[in-house]
Specification:
Elements: H1 13-27, H2 29-37, H3 52-62, E1 68-69, E2 74-75, H4 82-91, H5 96-108, H6 123-136, H7 145-148, E3 159-160, E4 165-169, E5 182-185, E6 188-196, E7 205-208, E8 221-222, E9 229-237, E10 240-245, E11 257-262
Parallel strand pairs: 3-5, 4-6, 5-11
Antiparallel strand pairs: 1-2, 6-9, 7-8, 7-10, 10-11
The chain binds heme C and copper (II) ion.
Length: 263
């Protein structure tokens, strides 16, 4: 690992990360030694029997809204992209067991003046999360087998309006998506609802036009934000295409949107 050799400008993100990484590994020397002693990562059981399926589910639920990790299909942008953070260090020979120690250290002691909350996970849960992240960061390909199905994905089955009610559900595992990206309604006044069991703060808003991930105009209506429960809004729909989407920062760009066809 390269530490402070001047190849990245002083104070740059890359330089800072490498420095912090070195510091954290130094401070966690004992943990690191333990992590190295227990090596080897199978598909489902990680080092020292960490449960990678639980680790993935918990990562998506507790970390994915802020962090991008390609293998977990999370696209949060509040915190650094974890594939990018560890890419250089792995290329320079950092072991994945050491990544695991860094992740555990960061969750136990996030920057007190930073955005990452303290106490997100501990004990076996943290160890499962860290094992999954360590196996997954900057890893080519996608998860297979039981790991691939550990987190529900978006369905192609549209939400269909019935008697003036159109019901959506936020991805229950915490991914930045609704459970479908298609909806159908008849013209008129429609009460749109979004149930959210994920614990991640979302809302639902409706915009005219088939606009995908990018906002084109002001929404015609928006629900309140909730992390658990059901939020609703009432809109008047004309025949045509609309986009439904979440207004939490970064969520639409991450894929939390779909197309509503009114006819
Ligand atoms: C509310 C948003 C948020 C959540 C939730 C969150 N993080 Fe973070 N995370 C951040 C931010 C912002 C940083 C940048 C440094 C800081 O503020 O501490 C960060 C930094 C990190 C880093 C260090 C990256 C580096 O540059 O060295 C790791 C590793 C990390 N987070 C892992 C996790 C894990 C694992 C979880 C879930 C248990 C998690 N984070 C949950 C926002 C978040
Ligand atoms: Cu959202």
């Amino acid at each position: 690992m390269r530490v402070g050799d001047g190849s990245a400008p002083a104070g740059s993100r890359q330089e800072r990360n490498t420095r912090e990484l070195a510091w954290r590994i130094g401070a966690g020397g004992l943990l690191l030694a333990l992590a190295i002693a227990a090596s080897g990562c199978a598909a489902v059981k990680g080092a020292d029997n960490a449960n990678l399926i639980l680790g993935k589910q918990q990562f998506v639920a507790k970390c994915g809204a802020c962090h991008t990790l390609a293998r977990a299909n999370t696209k949060g942008i509040v915190g650094p992209n974890l594939d990018a953070v560890f890419k250089t260090d792995l290329a320079e020979g950092l072991q994945r067991d050491a990544v695991r120690t860094v992740v555990e250290g960061q969750v136990q002691n996030p920057n007190p003046s930073g955005v990452m909350p303290k106490g997100l996970a501990s004990g076996a849960t943290l160890s499962d999360i860290a094992a999954y992240v360590a196996q997954s960061v900057d890893a080519p390909g996608s998860d297979t087998g039981l790991l691939a199905s550990a987190v529900p994905t978006t369905s192609a089955k549209p939400a269909v309006e019935k008697a003036g009610k159109l019901a959506f559900e936020a991805n229950p595992s915490g991914q930045l998506s609704y459970t479908t990206n298609k909806a159908e309604a008849t013209p008129g006044t429609v009460t749109v609802s979004m149930s959210n069991m994920s614990g991640v703060m979302h809302n639902i808003a409706i915009e005219e036009g088939e606009n995908g991930a990018t906002q084109k105009r002001a929404p015609i209506g928006a629900s309140s934000f909730i992390s658990k429960g059901t939020a609703t809004l009432t809109v008047k729909l004309k025949p045509g295409k609309y986009t439904f989407f979440c207004q939490a920062p970064g969520h639409r760009a991450a894929g939390m949107w779909g197309t509503l066809t009114v006819k």
